[in-house]
Structures are given as structure tokens and as C-alpha cells.
Design a protein that fits this description.
By secondary structure, the chain is an alpha/beta fold. The protein is built from 35 helices and 19 strands. The longest helix is centred in the C-terminal third of the chain and has 22 residues, at about 585-605. The chain is globular and about 85 Å long.
């Protein structure tokens, strides 16, 4: 068969029912058929799998597809079988198969029926599989999700590094490596590891014009914000990504309590449950999947209409790939990420204890994600720049920054200062070091290299650090600076940068957003950009809270916290049962203080003829999680709190978070036995008295007011005692 003369369009129509190829598909397939190695970089939804599926059906022998996820294999095998009369045309070989099923797979391969065999890298390395595959005619090897090979990739898997040695053991055949996300560094790493340095590269554009990108501050009301957003998208499919399994399960439960068809998905669940959940999502029996990043690789669902990141991802590649699961049919795809500095600190903490090189890589990837979140310039421009692609448009018209542009400020002098400093340090340092010099920070690195003696040292104290960060980042995008990724992000000056220094011109930048401020602002809850708080009712409820507090001789926040009042002014609860669904209320508080509040809300609703939007009332889950119940029981038995934390395998701070959530919801806990052991009586009395007099229970304010004699943990513990005794 002369592969050059093949009518690929006819074969495409015959096997898959399509009339035309997308993008580079035809060129890639011809390269594979010619027996050459190929490197394919194609964003999610671009049709990567067809690049190996069609040639496998045409070529002699069986194509081996190395794939990282069992769920992905099943999905793809089912899809290819749908196009063929012969079930044996595609198989997978992994740990989920029993002995009889494995024998059937081998029989179909030997008989020549099987054109595509999907294997996990772990299965490929098993001695019995290597022995068997040596006897088989291999047409080519396809390495899917190839970024898993690279330590710089967002989903590095050490077992992927063993693929080339195993291929050498089985038999030599062309290789096609495919990935949806890879920077230049990752591309080189993949090709080097697979031994295909001469592979022909096919790189598609990373621009997905139909995707809308937005970053929102992650406030205390994040669960409610998500519920409200989903309620504005009835019947649409969506994915919500969380970093922890615990949060996945909690959030899925909250969504179901609010009559949203949702299911949880994470690697800790049984594989049968995971497969069922995936099928339910694809078959539209479930609208929303709340998942860890284990979900979605290769899931062929074209009409996912929104992708929400509850937690900020560890890398921009991970973020890009996960958002890429939205709007694969070219239709609407809203990508919303919730960002908080605290989450960033947690991710940095996770890196501790890892090898130094891994920590450096991890921190650099996090720095890119932070820059993306905090920047006020076009998100599309930022993402494409990260992948080495230039986006020429000034305003994409489809991201939050472009739809709400910030005023640009002149930064010509600031840019010159940065360029001069980069030259002065001989292009040998990272961005933090450059900015530390300009801000006059006497860090150990700055002093050690005598950079406190440079002319630019301390010249930038008139501007904030985030302004300098914005200028530096936007200078990278403008091409005046370059980041040497090989050397962990060292900043170099480009020819254009040197030219600019000789002949400076206007350089306008937009300042980064201050998320710390936004997280702490009393923000009205929003959905799709609309404020849904009833300001009049909000004021009336705060006045009532003041009156009730006075009657009980308590600070107002002990009655109900601001987020609870805000939620009441948004969802209009008019019965005690509805009030219990308000975050931070719970049964105890509803009984004790609730009646006057629901009476006021009912009158307000009737007098103003307010139609209460059922879909806007966010129900919280009565949190009877095993963890909380177990903590309450342990405290009742007077177990020391630090021992409870050790027993639960959590940090002491996390335990305090859990106890606060229990106490603020109205459950009374007595932790005197522990306080007496760890804090002096005088200190307890002073902190207790402070909260009795204070208008707020804000921790930062308490730390400022009380001074250095008291630790944060001591203040939190006594605050717990105070809320429990006075409010519950």
C-alpha cells in the first residue's frame, strides 16, 4: 500500500464519519504513516487522538498507546469501538482486568484484530507484558499526555521516564508524543527523554477565543458564590476543581443540598464509582462534577459550559489544561478561578520537605500562576505568552480584565530602573532579587553579592512592590526582558531591552490587583457580575443585631457574624428552618436569636412585595461530618487539643479552624480543661475581657490591640471560649 497516495479524506469519512481534518491533523497523520517520529502540541479539543487512531487503522500491526489514566483508556476504547464493527479493534491492558480478560486481549492482538492497545506506563513495564509484546508487530508507539514525562510538566510521573528503555526492550518503531500543554522547556525534556530529538514538531495555537477567563477573590462566602453562579447556569454541564479530596466531598454535598445535580470524583474513590460518575456526567445524568485534577484527562465531552477552580492550581499548564475542558465544541466556556494569598501560602508549604531542585521548580511554577492571577492585563495575552505565543490584540473582549480595563499609568522610568538593575547584576538573578535591590531590601542574598552598593539600590521605595512586579512582568511580555527557564527563572535583557535603554519611550502599564485587600473587603455577594444583597434589609438586620446584642450585653458579632447577616439580606429566610441554612447560624443560634430576625425579614418581604428567588437561597449542609462529630466527642472526653490534632493527622491550626466552624454555628464546647493547662489565668481574663468590649472578633485587630505578649493561638483559643459561653 503506497501511503503517500492514500486518500486520507476518504478513510477519515469511512472510519470516523468526518469530511475534513482539523488544523495539522492530516500533516501529522502523513508523518506517522511515513514512519517518522512526531511531536504534537495541540490544545484540548483540537483532536489529538485522531492523529494516532486513524493511522493505527491503516497501518500493519498494533499501535501501542501509553496513557496515564484508566478512566481515559476506557473512554477512548469505547469511542473507537463505536466506529468499528469489530469490538476487538481496540483494547486496554491495565490493573483493572482479570486473568480471563487479559487472555482475551492477547488473543485478539495475536489474531490481528486489535489495531490499538492502550496501556498504562506501569503495565508496559511488567515483565510478562514486555515478553508478550516482543512477539507482536508494533506499528508505532503513541505517548499520550506526554507532559507527564517532564519534571517541569504540571503532572510529572516518574514511571513515564522509563518508557524509552522499555520500548528499546520490546521493538523499535516510530514514536508520536502528544500533549495539550507544554512550554519550550517541557517540549525539549519530552523529546530528550523519549530519544526523539529529530521528531517533526506540530504546534497549534494555544488561543481558545471562545473561553472566558476570570479570577475572583476567594472570600469566606466562596461556597455560596459558587452555588449562586451555578444557579444562573441551569441544565448546563460544569466541572469544579478542588485540590483536596475532603473539599471535593464537602462541596458536592453543599451543591446537592441546594438542589444542584452534582457528584464528587477523586482518586480515593473505588474505581467502579469513578467510572460510574464519569459515565453519569457524559450521559448528562449529572450536571456538575466536583473533582481533584484526577478528573478530565481525555474526557471527550464537548459541551462543558463552565470550569471553576475552587483552589488556585499549582501551575499555569495545569490551569490551562483544566480550563481547556470547557467549550470544546467552540461554544460558551466560562473559566472562573477563586484566588487567595492564603491558598498560595498553603501550596508553598506543601513544597517543604521535597528535594531542593523540585522545590525550586515548584516555586517558579507557582510564581507564574500568581502573576497570572494578580495581573490586570489581558488574561489571554498572559496565558499565550507563557506558552511562547504572541497575542497581538490589546483587548481580547473575553476576559474579566479586558471587560473591566484598569487605567494605564506611565512606567518609562520604572522600566529603565529594572533594565539597568538586570545589567548591573550581570543578568544572573531572578525577578525577586531584582525587585529586592530596587526596594532597598537588605536580604542575605543582596548583602552577600554587595548589591546594596549598586546605584539602583533603594531607588524604588516610592512605589509599591506589586507595581514593580507588574512593570517587570509586562516588560517580559513586551519582549524587553527574557526569563531563562533552564536556570530557574534568571532574568536576561533582550536586544529590544538594550535598544529601549538607549532610546526610552512611553511604556504604559496597568497595576496588579491587590487580592489581599479584596479578600478582606466586606464584599456584597455577586453572581454573574450582579450585586444580590438587599442593602436596605442589610442595614435593618445590622440595627436589629445591635439591639439584640445590647439586650444580652454581648458584642453584635456574637449574635450573628457579618457573612450570616449578608446571606440573610440575600436569600430572605422567613422561617427558623430556612434560617438554619444560613452559613454560621445552625440550630442553637436559630432557636436562641432567630425569631426576631425572620419576623423582620418576613415584614420586609411583604411590605416591599419581594419575590423571594428560591434558586438564590443557598443551603449549607448541616455539617455532621465524621471529623466534626469526632472532635466534639474528644472535647467532651477532655482530650488535649494538640493530641486531637495528632490523632486526626491535621495541623493544630486546621483543628482550630474546625472547632471555630463548630462553635460559630451555635454548638457549645467547653475547652477550659485545655486552656488551664496552656495559658495563664491572667492572660485568659485579659483576652476574654478584650472580646467582651470589642466591636469585632477580627483576629488581626485583636493581635494588634493585645500586643506581642499573646500568641495567635492563645487569642484564638480564648475567643473560642468567649463565643461558646456568651453566644451559644
Amino acid at each position: 500500500m503506497d501511503k503517500n497516495k492514500l486518500d486520507l479524506h476518504e478513510l477519515l469519512k469511512q472510519h470516523f464519519g468526518f469530511d475534513t481534518f482539523k488544523g495539522d491533523q492530516e500533516a501529522i497523520i502523513r508523518n506517522v504513516l511515513a514512519g517518522n517520529d512526531s511531536f504534537v502540541l495541540m490544545p484540548t479539543g483540537g483532536g489529538k487522538s485522531l492523529c494516532y487512531q486513524l493511522p493505527s487503522l491503516i497501518m500493519e500491526g498494533t499501535a501501542i498507546v501509553v496513557s496515564p489514566l484508566i478512566a481515559l483508556m476506557k473512554n477512548q476504547v469505547d469511542a473507537i469501538r463505536n466506529y468499528s464493527e469489530e469490538d476487538g479493534v481496540a483494547h486496554f491492558l491495565n490493573s483493572s482486568l482479570n486473568k480471563a480478560a487479559i487472555e482475551q486481549v492477547k488473543a485478539d492482538i495475536v489474531s490481528g484484530k486489535t489495531k490499538l492497545l492502550y496501556v498504562a506506563p506501569e503495565s508496559l513495564t511488567k515483565e510478562e507484558n514486555v515478553e508478550f509484546l516482543r512477539t507482536v508487530k508494533i506499528s508505532f508507539y503513541a505517548i499520550d499526555e506526554a507532559h507527564c514525562i517532564s519534571e517541569w510538566g504540571h503532572d510529572f510521573r516518574p514511571e513515564y521516564r522509563k518508557i524509552r528503555p522499555i520500548i528499546n526492550e520490546i521493538s523499535d518503531a516510530p514514536i508520536i508524543a502528544l500533549t495539550a500543554t507544554a512550554t519550550h522547556k517541557v517540549r525539549d525534556d519530552i523529546k530528550r527523554s523519549l530519544g526523539i530529538s529529530d521528531a517533526k514538531e506540530f504546534c497549534s495555537s494555544f488561543n481558545r477565543p471562545n473561553l472566558y477567563y476570570e479570577v475572583r477573590p476567594k472570600t469566606k462566602n466562596v461556597d455560596s458564590d459558587i452555588v449562586r453562579f451555578i444557579k444562573t447556569q441551569p441544565g448546563k454541564s460544569g466541572i469544579i476543581y478542588c485540590l483536596s479530596r475532603k473539599k471535593v466531598e464537602e462541596l458536592a454535598e453543599i451543591l446537592r443540598a441546594n438542589e444542584i445535580s452534582a457528584a464528587a470524583y477523586h482518586a480515593g474513590m473505588e474505581s467502579a464509582v469513578r467510572s460510574q460518575t464519569q459515565d453519569d456526567f457524559i450521559m448528562e445524568r449529572v450536571d456538575v462534577i466536583v473533582a481533584t485534577i484526577a478528573f478530565g484527562m481525555g474526557i471527550d465531552k464537548p459541551d462543558v459550559r463552565y470550569v471553576i477552580h475552587y483552589d488556585i492550581p499549582k501551575s499555569l499548564e495545569g490551569y490551562y489544561q483544566e480550563t481547556g475542558r470547557g467549550g470544546r465544541d467552540g461554544g460558551e466556556g466560562r473559566c472562573i478561578a477563586f484566588y487567595s494569598n492564603k491558598d498560595l501560602q498553603k501550596l508553598e508549604k506543601f513544597l517543604e520537605g521535597k528535594p531542593i531542585a523540585e522545590q525550586d521548580i515548584g516555586r517558579q511554577l507557582l510564581k507564574e500562576t500568581t502573576a497570572y492571577c494578580e495581573s490586570s492585563i489581558c488574561r489571554r495575552k498572559l496565558l499565550l505568552h507563557y506558552f511562547g505565543e504572541t497575542y497581538e490584540e490589546e483587548n481580547c473582549g473575553n476576559c474579566d480584565n479586558c471587560l473591566n480595563p484598569k487605567k494605564k499609568v506611565e512606567a518609562q522610568e520604572l522600566l529603565c530602573t529594572i533594565l539597568e538593575t538586570v545589567i548591573a547584576v550581570k543578568e544572573n538573578f531572578k525577578s525577586e532579587h531584582i525587585i529586592n535591590i530596587i526596594l532597598g531590601k537588605e536580604t542575605s542574598d543582596v548583602i552577600a553579592h554587595q548589591h546594596d552598593e549598586l546605584e539602583t539600590f533603594g531607588t524604588g521605595t516610592g512605589d509599591e512592590e506589586r507595581t514593580w512586579n507588574a512593570v517587570l512582568h509586562q516588560a517580559l511580555i513586551a519582549g524587553y526582558l527574557n526569563k531563562d527557564v533552564e536556570n530557574y527563572g534568571i532574568i536576561k535583557i533582550t536586544a529590544a531591552g538594550k535598544k529601549y535603554l538607549k532610546n526610552p519611550k512611553s511604556f504604559k502599564v496597568v497595576e496588579d490587583r491587590d487580592f489581599e485587600e479584596e479578600e478582606n473587603e466586606e464584599m456584597p455577594m455577586r453572581t454573574g457580575g450582579t450585586v444580590v444583597v438587599d442593602p436596605g434589609l442589610f442595614t435593618m438586620l445590622k440595627d436589629l443585631r445591635k439591639k439584640v446584642a445590647k439586650k444580652h450585653d454581648l458584642p453584635p458579632y456574637v449574635i450573628f457574624q457579618d457573612p450570616s447577616i449578608e446571606a440573610m439580606a440575600t436569600t430572605y429566610p422567613i422561617t427558623l428552618e430556612e434560617l438554619r441554612n444560613i452559613p454560621g447560624v445552625g440550630e442553637g443560634k436559630a432557636k436562641r436569636y432567630g425569631q426576631e430576625f425572620v419576623d423582620l425579614i418576613r415584614r420586609h418581604v411583604e411590605e416591599n412585595e419581594i419575590e423571594r428567588p428560591e434558586d438564590m437561597r443557598v443551603r449549607t449542609v448541616a455539617n455532621k461530618s465524621k471529623m466534626k462529630v469526632s472532635i466534639i466527642q474528644s472535647i467532651d472526653r477532655k482530650v488535649a487539643l494538640d493530641d486531637i490534632a495528632v490523632a486526626k493527622g491535621i495541623e493544630f491550626e486546621e483543628l482550630l479552624d474546625e472547632i471555630e466552624s463548630i462553635v460559630y454555628s451555635g454548638t457549645k464546647l467547653n475547652i477550659d480543661y485545655f486552656l488551664e493547662e496552656v495559658i495563664d489565668d491572667d492572660k485568659i481574663d485579659e483576652i476574654y475581657e478584650y472580646f467582651k468590649e470589642s466591636e469585632t472578633d477580627d483576629l488581626e485587630e485583636a493581635i494588634d490591640e493585645l500586643g506581642d505578649e499573646y500568641t495567635e493561638d492563645e487569642i484564638r483559643l480564648v475567643r473560642l471560649k468567649f463565643i461558646s459561653e456568651m453566644g451559644n
